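Notes from hallway chat w/ T.B., transcribed later so I don't forget. T.B. wanted the structure written out for a chain they're using in a teaching module, and asked if we could keep both sequence and structure tokens in one place. Agreed to drop them here.
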Amino acid sequence: MTQQKDLPYMTSQELEDFIDSTDIELSKEEIEYLYLRRRRLSLSMKKPSNANATKVEKHPILSEYPCQNSYPYKVLILGDESYSGKIDIFQLFTLTDLIESAPHILDMKQLPPCDIQTKVLEAVDAKDSSIKKHYALELWLPQCTEETTALRPLYYPATDIFILIFSIKEPETFNYLAKMILPELKKYINEATGGISNADTPILLVGNHAEVRNDETYEGQLVPSQEAFNLAQENGISKYIEIFSENLFHIHEIFQQSVLVVDSAHAASKTAEKERALNFYKEYQFFKSQLTVPAPDCNFSQLEKTFELSTNPGVEYFFTTDGTDPTKASKRYKGPIQLKKPCPKEIRAIAIARCKYQSEVSIFKVPAQSSAPVGYFDPITKGFHIQRKSDTVYFITLDGSDPTTDSMVYKPPGIFFDNKRINCAFEKTPNIPEVVKVIAIEEGKFGSRIVAFKPFNVLPTPSATLKDNVLRIDTIPGVVYRYTIDGSTPTFDSAEFNHSEGVLISSEREINNVKIAAFPKLFFPSAVKLVKNQKTRSPKPTKQIRMNRATMRRNESSPMRPSSNGAGSNGGNVSGMSGGGGSHYASSTISSANRKRSPSKLNRQNSSGALSSGSRSPRPSSPRMRNAVSPIVRPQRGLKSSITQKEQQSLINRKALFQQMSPRVHESPVQHKSHQFKVNTAFSTSSSNTTESLVKCKAEGTNIEFKFEKPVLLSNVIVKTPGQGDGPSAYECFSIDEDSAEITTIASGHLKDVYGEQVMEIDSTFTQIPCTKVLCVFQMQPGQTAFKILDMKVDCKVV
């Protein structure tokens, strides 16, 4: 039998299972009653421990303030919920200190909940008014409604005084105390046994809104003072007082009188102070474990970058973002909060509810933002690729809308817009989106900023003519033109057009149509151009074409042969340059030892501008084409022809096409200072003779051109980038033969977005071929309008 008394009649889990399984709809007050009642009965079955009988824990507020009482006096305030004014009295008394430091709390549309509050009261001694004492009070304001009739008495144990409040101008509130609350209190005090409650608990009766007794214009019915006195005497109430509403002095007087009444009751009681303290702390621990609001929990939305608390009905939440603990005067949580830059490092929140202890402060660390995605378009495979991280998910949209977690997820090796890898040009406009938007979400972090990647510009359709089987194309630097004569679509393996004047397609049969496409590395292939053969009355030409290059190039400036506007003193700032319009020159000297004569140049012209009969064919512009044999056009000796008006217009179109292809950049109005380019040279040690050679550098648009007075052998080009998204993303270098106007690709690749030097390696095939002019073309990053280069160095050897 003793063993059964030591066990609770129902465990907490059993009660929880019962509430979940019952078909009866229970209110939150009824559920709270079941838990308190179960816990109360469970504790009453246990034998009191001798150790706990003598142990007294000090209340936290008594550690901060020296008070007259050894434990906080528990004060319960009861009255009609709507018209008695008890809530206003409670708020004005408990929020006094908070209002002084945060007066904006009075401007709140809704005041904070009336939770269980502990406050220190400065009171006057009952015998000597000159002596002031400090008392700690624990204030309770339980709900007085029909739903809480069963729950409310469970709050009464260890109460030191009951304060009953009614409104003088609302007789119904007086009747509510007389018929509902007073019988409930008398029943509880008479039935309380076993040290759960003090039998000598005093009661204070307060009449609110006493100012209406002096208002002659008030026509409503009032509660007579004598009737209130009679009620107090009939029910053993210690004292009755009347106050003006919203008068802080009068409100303070309520609790001043409460302390005097409690001290007087304790002095007349046979219960020792220590026993009362033990009883209070025992109940305090019980209520603290049962009536403390759970600490708030939160969720951070990675994509929306919002902060959201997990809320419960009847609970209010307050939070701060400046690192301080929240109070009732802090921001009230009303729903998900959008975090904006600069994001706080942490968010602190508390939960407050009516007649409950405040929750502990929850501290939430705000996640960092994910790194922005890094991606690129591959024009050869017609695909889009992302430099992935193992713990990151990438969401993508192709229609221009912002990506969400419902968008397409990026999966390696990439996204190919025709669902397969291709290596040919397109018959029609390529089906490539105008923009690819990507957001990266790392594990445990906010989503990154949305990055929009725009594909490279599609090259313009080639401008070409086919006349008498001779194909002529207005070429653009950095672009490879390939053609077919059998009606098929040009691919990367088709014949390459690498002649600036023209090429004889066939001398054996007449060609009706030629298909041409442009294939650069930094752009998507162009649309296919269909060129029809134009027949003339003249006989079919031989392999020799009447043409004079010197005549065609005279007084013309084209992208293949940039005009010379000046020399060293008018130099532009390429170390720290911004890619943009304008042409600038800078010069520097390079030293060489054991200078050798440069070999005879290929395709050297004679004095009339025509190619000599012994000249060799130009070197193919890429390793892939070295084995391909292309017919070479050789001008006829001794024949001269002036440039026609149509050919002159063709040259003008070539320059316009080049300008159209170059990305538009913002031209800074800042004047650039002249800069000496750093050129590293490799020397032969077999001789100590040293000479000086001059190199000129020209920056135009996104291009940088190096021009050497003496032929050099290139090893590599070193570029210093600024990082932080300010540098270029890719490059391509060309060697330009000024005599034959032949352009050869010698290097290409991507640049990292880092601060420091990066090597633009020259193809080993071209490191032993002398050159006098090098053109470096840079590609801007997506979204850039200009880029910067801090420095450039050319590693070369003078021959």
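Follow-up for T.B.: DSSP finds 13 helices and 39 strands in the chain. Might be a good example for the class.
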